[in-house]
Amino acid sequence: MEPPPLINLVDPELYSHGDPFVQWRWLRANDPVHWHEPAELPGYWSLTRYEDVRTAYRDHETFSSAHGILLRPADHGVDPGGGRTLALTDPPRHRQLRGVVDEWFTVRSVRALEEEMRDIARAVVGDALAQESCDFVTEIAARIPLYVICKMMGIPESDWQYLYDLTSKAFADGDPLTRRFAHLDIMGYFENLQEEKAADPGDDLVSALATAVIDGDRLSPDDIILNCDNLLVGGTENTRISAAGGMLAFLQHPEQWDILRADPSLLPSAVEEVLRWTSTATHIMRTAARPIEIHGKRIEPGDRVVFWLPSANRDETVFDDPDRFDVLRKPNRHLALGFGEHFCLGSMLAKSELRLLFDELLNSRVDIELAGEPKLLESIVVNGPESLPVRLTPRGA
Ligand code: HEM
C-alpha cells in the first residue's frame, strides 16, 4: 500500500497552496469512507469515490440536508437556513419550495434570456479589450451570472452595480469582517425588496417567493430573505469560479482551446469538461438520519457525511485518464452540479452562461494570455481562482 499522506481536507490553505488530489487519490484507493475529527470542526465521514457519492446522493432519506450542507464550526451553532431554504430542506418541504421557483430555470426560461446574456458577454469582452489587463474573475466571469440572476429576481437595473460590488466583497474580499458586513448588507437589501414585491408583485423570482403559499401559509419574511440569499449566492459564486477555472485550464492547455476554436460545435461538451475539471463546489455535507454501513464502516444517525465532489469527478474507475483536461471527453457524467433530489436548480442556466461566455471569447477574435500569477481561493467550500490576471488583445495584433 502507498504510504498514507497526512489527511486533512479541511485546511483552507490546502486549496490555495497545496494539492488536495494527493489526499483524495489515496483515500479513494485505501480508505473510501474515512473518519476525521479536526480540531476546529466537528468530526465527519469523507466519501471520495464517485459511486459512493452518487449512491448517497440518491438516498435522501438516509442523507438529510436539513441540518446544513456545509461543515461549520460547532460554536457557530445550527445553520440559520436549516429546514428553511431550498438547499437545506428535505422532502416534502424541499419539493414544495422547489416548485415555487423551478419554472424560472427550465430550458425554455433560460433560452429566453440567451440574447441578453450574449449582449452582456459582448460588452464584457469589449471592456476587457479596452484595458491593458484585467482580472478575469471579477471583470469577465462575474458579470453575466450576476446580471442574469438580478434580472430574474426582479432587482431594478439601477441596483445591479451595487449588488455586484456587494457580492464581490461578500465572496472575494480578503478581510473576513468586510465579507461578513457585505453579507449583512445583501440580507438587508432583500429585506426591503421582499416587502416591496409582496405589496406590488411582478413577474420575477422574489415576487414568486414573497407571494408563495405552501400548505395554506405564506413564507415568513426570514424564509424569503434566506432563499433570496441562497439564489443570489447560488446564481453567482460557482458559475464565476467555474468560468475562471475553465479559462485557466484553457490557458494551461492551449491545445484544447485550439480544438475548440477549430470546431465550436464542441462547446457543449467542453462546458461539461470545464464543470468536471473545475468542480468548484468542493464539499457538500449531509447528516445521517438513520444508520447505514458503507464499505464496512458504520455511520450512525446524526453523523456528518461529506461528499468531496472534485474527488468523485477524478475517480479513475469512472473517468478514463481523469487528470487530463479533455474537451472531447465522452461520456462525462460528472457530479459537479450534484445529483438526485438537490441537483443544481441553475444547471441549465450555468451551462448556458459558460457556453455563451466561451463562445464570445472564441468568436471575438481575441488572444488571451496570463498577465500575472493566478491566485487560488483559500476555502474548503468553493475552489478555483480568486483572481486571474489576463490580457486580451485583438488576434494577431
Ligand atoms: C458552475 C456553476 C454551478 C455549480 C458548480 C453548482 C453546483 C451546485 C451543486 C453541487 C448543488 C447541489 C447541492 C447539494 O447537493 O446539496 C447545487 C444546488 C443548487 N444550485 Fe447550483 N451550481 C452552479 C450554478 C448555479 C446557478 C447559476 C444557480 C442559479 C440560481 C444555482 C442555484 C442552485 C440552487 C438554488 C441549488 C439548491 C437546489 C436544491 O437544493 O434543490 N446554481 N448547485
Automatic annotation (TrEMBL):
One of its GO terms (biological process) is cholesterol catabolic process. It comes from the Bacteria. One of its GO terms (molecular function) is iron ion binding. Gene3D superfamilies: Cytochrome P450. The keyword Iron applies. Keywords: Heme, Iron, Metal-binding, Monooxygenase, Oxidoreductase. InterPro entries: Cyt_P450, Cyt_P450_B, Cyt_P450_sf. CDD domains: CYP142-like (cd11033). Belongs to the cytochrome P450 family. This is Cytochrome P450.
